[in-house]
Amino acid sequence: MVYEVIGTPSPDRAARVRQLAELGFTWADLEEEAYWMDQLLVMERASYHELFRAAELLWNIFDKAARRVKGRRDLYEQLSIPEVLWDGLDRLEMAAPGVISRYARFDFAVDQAGRIKLLELNADTPTGYVEASIATPWMCAQYDIASPNAGMKELIRSAWAAEAPDYAACTGYGQHVEDSGTIDALVSHSGREITCIDCLDLWIDEGVVKVGEHQRIERMFALYPKEWMGIDDGGEAFSYAIEERFIELFNPLHAIILQSKGLQALIWELHEKRDPIFTEEEHAAIDTYMLATYVTPALSGNYVSKSMFGREGGSVQLFDANGELEVMDEAGFDTSIFFKRVYQQRTELPKLGFADGEMHVLTGLFVLNGLPCGLLGRAGGMITGNSSRFVAIGVKST
Questions:
Q1: Domain for residue 370, yes or no?
Q2: Beta strand 219-223 pairing with 167-170
């Protein structure tokens, strides 16, 4: 058994929610819904070590594949990257190996038998940082359980020391509770003097990005999905500002290559061909930890279809052994109206018993400044979407 659920929810939930809010996690209860679960998941140490090593290998694999894509417009198209970004991807220098993105999260299915399968990588704008870096160590400390998340703050400090943003932005800053809280926590943990702003307050004057009348922005961290530059009003002007280096954006532009689920299909194709881009150890890791993924519906049954740039479960469809649609996400926004789909071998999330009933559990693992570091648990239905809840994950000492 990889996971054990421990603890009993406190009868005074309101008091604990207030404690979490004081720490910076202000959405433990969200719109009168209990988002945070007052129980702890504890993972076997051996399974955690395997997960950590899998993430190290996969991070290098994704990095190598992204470098294969750079400069290949046929692959940009295959990965459904908006054309407005192609010139920037070609012209800008890609970051050093391992740090194309310094703020990312893998999502895994880790079952009770110890099988680990990667579902996807969010290398652009992952959510859950506050839950992982603040709430999880707090929960683990109460049960005297080790938390590998304790080092997340220092890794953000190192990452932002290297990137040196002067501004941090999200859409609806000050209004959108989760994104605003995430920006505030990242800025606090960075130890830097950074101004937080709303993406909607930005404007562009001949390539120069500004906020207010005279404030010029040259280095900015933004929780803004880069693929939306191909759709949003002003997206083309913003991409031009990045391409011409009027502004440096973090995560950098090339993070969109890692973000596209189409990259998983490219990795699988290279693996099937035994391409020497990967070492034998990396080919073995792909075979063990990744799922067969294609850009066309090549699987006859037991597969998942999802947008290359889907988020929070939006666009996900699960097909049964006969190739019939079994369940689909109906709450999230279906981005496949804008972006191509991938077709991935299906694997099931483990189903665990909590005080509120049985739920499927997704295991997230952050990669900050190039290093795997922090666990994030999400519990809900067969598809992890907006209605899923946060559950802290700790690691057994032995």
A1: yes
A2: parallel
Q: What is the DSSP letter of 388?
A: -
Q: What is the DSSP string of 180-237?
A: HHHHHHHHHHHTS--EEEEGGGEEEETTEEEETTTEEE-EEEEE--GGGGGTSTTHHH
Residue 17 vs residues 37, 133, 139, 222: alpha-carbon distances, Å: 10, 16, 12, 28
Contact 77, 262 (CB under 8 A): no
| Domain carrying residue 135 | 3-260+351-395
Strand partners of residue 294: 343
Structure tokens at 291: 């799922």
Q: What is the pLDDT of residues 164-196, one digit of tens each?
A: 999 999 999 999 999 999 999 999 999 999 999
Q: How far is CA 63 from the centre of its chain?
A: 15
Q: Does a structural domain hold residue 235?
A: yes
The model's pTM: 0.97
Structure-block tokens of residue 190: 């960075």
Q: How many CB atoms lie within 10 A of CB 214?
A: 6
pLDDT per residue over 277-329, tens digit each? 999 999 999 999 999 999 999 999 999 999 999 876 678 999 999 999 999 88
- Main-chain phi, psi angles of 322, to 5 degrees: -90, 5
- The answer to whether residues 251 and 101 touch, using CB atoms and an 8 Å cutoff, is yes
Position 334 in a domain: no
With the CA atoms of 52, 56, 57 and 59 taken in that order, what torsion angle do they form, in degrees rounded to the nearest 10? 130
Among residues 232, 268, 235, 238, the alpha carbon closest in space to that of 342 is found at: 268
Residue type, 45: R
Pairing of strands 357-368, 317-319: unpaired
Give how many domains the chain has, as a whole number.
Answer: 1
Beta bridge partners of 43: 3, 395
Peptide bond into 322 cis (omega under 30): no
**Which residues are paired to 256 by β-bridges?**
none
Buried residues in 319-357 as b, exposed as e (16+ CB within 10 A): beeeeeeeeebeebbbbbebbbbbbbebbebbebebeee
pLDDT in tens, 330-359: 777 888 899 999 999 999 999 999 999 999
Report the candidate in 349, 364, 353 with the shortest Cα–Cα distance to residue 132.
Answer: 364
Q: What pLDDT shows up at residue 313?
A: 62
Q: Which of 382, 384, 371 is nearest to 103 (CA)?
A: 371
Q: Whole-angstrom distance between the N-terminal and C-terminal Cα of the chain? A: 14
Query: 70 near 257, Cβ under 8 Å?
Result: yes
Nearest to 251 by CA among 341, 334, 351, 156: 156
On whether residue 338 sits in a domain, the answer given is no
